[in-house]
Amino acid sequence: MSFMASSRQTRTTWCSRCGASISAPPGARSVRCALCHTTTRVERRPQHNGGLHQAVGFIKGLLFGSPSQQPPPPPASSGSMRAGDPYRLPASYPRARGKKRALLVGISYSFTKYELKGTVNDVNCMAYLLGQRFGFPSDCILALTQEEKDPNRWPTKDNIRLAMRWLVEGCTSGDSLVFHFSGHGVQKLDNNGDEVDGYDEALCPQDFEDRGVILDDEINETIVRPLGAGVKLHAIIDTCHSGTILDLPYLCRISRTGYWQWENHNRQPDAQKGTSGGLAISFSGCGDSQTSAESNTTAFLGSPSTGAMTYSFIKAVESEPGTTYGRLLSAMRATIRDNGGESGIPGPIGSFFRRVITFSNAQEPQLCASEAFDIYRKPFIL
């Protein structure tokens, strides 16, 4: 039987619990998932959540590319972002009106051989820190995880793209934005010649095997370049290959003795990689070339667990209030070298994290920025 004939008789839907792709027989009103055994109703129109498939061809996809690097725009939902804009926000996304907003993404890649255990925990910990320490309103924090009941908040490629636009949409002077991502990161061959090492860095959405990864070029275009004067963005990226994941022009090199200097990674001066007058700063879990398990969030043993990058960032922030970027980066690296440190995170926030974190890892966090500054004089403020 030809593919065309077969496709008229079967219909693809997605499991309502784990997101796996399921082929429904002709006329079926419900189907049972072979992975998690959940019964899902077959809709007339399949849900567009991307879904997770099994890890067939995973390594091939990472090395040679996914089916589509530039898919069509995300599907329209209620609540337009601006008049005439083809992208529309789901009605369930927060209507952030304050001066602080955050996008937190944690992807566990459930029911695959590359599943991660601590990513949702990372999101919960970051949300707690932002709310308790830095005064981010809960209704200005958007979390995308596979544990969300709302399909619009699953960390699919389309949803992450929409959420990144939500993060920067309408931002004005004095706004403080945070982008946190915990999941898998990969490298791709650079096709436009703007990378010093010849590779683009990329984030892997929940449905990356079908929809492809999100390249650093797109991340930069979406959440870095729109930042106007007086707007500040901090990114905390807990993945492999994440050193220059925002494609920012400057990478800070710092030795264990504290000596530091900025490297200019803007290989094409005519190509705009900075902001539109604002400031973008990223803390990432490791260098671009690191691929071993020691820079992977799965290295945290126990259940529940969390990522080395997320833990070291939180511990450094809590241990050194009023710190500078240089001291913060040095403290993060020291925490990871010391396997989490002996004292842990102090105070009531520390008690919360000690209930959900087990620690064991080694890696080297990185600092990038849209402009060079004195890392030991500039105070870290969210």
CATH class of the largest domain: Alpha Beta
Q: Mind telling me which CATH architecture of the largest domain this is?
A: 3-Layer(aba) Sandwich
Number of domains: 2
| Rg result | 21 Å
Strand content: 15-25%
Which stretches of 5+ consecutive residues score pLDDT under 50? 1-8, 44-85, 290-303, 356-362
The mean pLDDT is 75
Q: Helices and strands: which structural class?
A: alpha/beta
Topology-level CATH name of the largest domain = Rossmann fold
Alpha-carbon distance between the two ends: 60 Å
Helical run tally: 9
Please summarize the sheet with the most strands: 8 strands, mixed
Strand order of the largest sheet: 6-5-7-11-14-15-12-13
Total DSSP E strands = 15
Give the overall silhouette. globular
Give the helices and strands as they follow along the chain.
Answer: HEEEEHEHEHEEEHEHEEEEHHHE
Percent range of helical residues: 10-25%
